[in-house]
Model the fold of this input.
Amino acid sequence: MLAYIQVFLVGLLFSFLGSIPPGTLNVSVLQLGLQKKVATALRFALAVSIIEYPYAWLAVEFESWLTSSPLIIENFQLITAVAMTSLGAFTLWTSHKPSAFSLKFNESGFRRGIVLSLLNPMAIPYWVGATAYFKAQGWLILSTNGLVHSYVLGTSVGVMLLLILFIFAASWLARYVQQNRFIKLLPGVVMLLLGLYAFAKYLF
Done:
């Protein structure tokens, strides 16, 4: 039982810490919190944590194969670059003239969370590298399916906890920035910058 708790806590802690840097998902959930759309933001966070599970599981299962194939990691950079740039441009465009589709998409926290998480596959190389490091340090012994799933469940819970923290912290600040137009543009700007950054890393 202690081994299951240990791998769960390792997954939770490093998922929580790894999700802190600004990115598409946490900036989007902050925006929803700032707009006081707490229920939508919670559905968004749930969707993100659900997608984190299979991505982390894939990273664990194919760790040795992925780490021996640098070309695959490079392709993730390209995929992320294309996805983030496209989503960023779409978000900025619809913020000026939202279509019926974009309004419905943005109001549906769960669908939005699923789509953005699926289009953000950099969780896989993150967990490949992190898992390899944890194993090398002796923090993880994933010798059974139960231990693997306990670890992966920890990664989902960790990102969920961080996003919930962001939601309620942002909601508390909403009274000060609710009318700020920059908040509406922020996710699109971040996605566009992340996409351009990923393109730069891929090309140079």
